[in-house]
């Protein structure tokens, strides 16, 4: 067993801190398509203090920076038609929010169970539908552009698990037709907003088989898109535990990144407003998207958080009795220590990464040990940008660290006060079957069980990255 070394010297100097800045960072948002209709019929919204306030400001004060709005072709009452969408988009823009536009290509709801053509398109063949998709997308986005709105993302279709615009665009009838419809939408988006990211969106994030079938299929026919979107409603799959559903969702998102080289986003998430674990469910899902390999999880959007019990919908994040947000909405604040923790288990030994002796001092050795539930084996992955994470241990609040900024094979892994230095930044590299490597940003080497040991107390070191199992880990 390796003993903790006595730290007799301090680090001579730290690398310059690197601040990750992007024009657009990780998105945290809400779909509020019902908002204007709710307000029209007299719904009032209150903030945490019980004061009436604009719901977009309440969302912003809870950590959200983005708004998603659906577009219907010729809806009853005009709700979610382009004029209604423009009015809501202007409100969102004036509040400083980023915007996602979601084309359903229907007069009403489009989802896995129904993808009904707009009444005006009912007699169109596939060529007519492709033209209609292009012109509807183009005209709608031009109207937004003329109103001063620039969406960051545009969905072409909503929850298209079996295509859209049935029966011509039903994927089980013709995957080629669906791919062509996607391309019609894509091309129209890029004609108006060349920098907007085009999303193809499926429901049931945990259903890897459907995602593979769909994206293998449309890719075969040259589908053009930038991002894979997913809906995630973890409690809807009961009796399967929500924890299992969330884990399966992350596995699928990582599979999409690896298989298709695409960014991913959760465009819809929700849990019952009165579910006792709702805050934990949503917090965990936010963390899951942040943990997507190589930083390719773009963000997460709560679906209609303000709409609890509106039209019978109960998966919002508002208390219908008080008109105030529930604690679930606080998950988007991501306050300190809000990142869920996990054990990190070796594929080689089945032991877990452990701070030896539960030490709390800088320089305490990091080893492998039989997995248990104590806090010295509980780690949170906290994003630093560019796909890297700090890996913080729960019992001491210190971070995994390459000791003394070593660039050499065999450099020791310890815990140390968290900083911006690259010797505390690690990337999760997908190795398949739910396992990953942890590559150091500083040295470009990987965390390794020394000498491929299988015993309690074997050291964690860095070593040139390879495919052996003593460098492969999973969340456990």
From TrEMBL:
The keyword Metal-binding does not apply. It is an enzyme of class 3 (hydrolase). CDD domains: beta-trefoil_Ricin-like, beta-trefoil_Ricin_AgaB34-like. Residues 1-23 form the signal peptide. Keywords: Glycosidase, Hydrolase, Signal. Residues 339-476 form the Ricin B lectin domain. Its EC number is 3.2.1.89. It holds the Pfam family Glyco_hydro_53. It catalyses: The enzyme specifically hydrolyzes (1->4)-beta-D-galactosidic linkages in type I arabinogalactans. Belongs to the glycosyl hydrolase 53 family. This is Arabinogalactan endo-beta-1,4-galactanase.
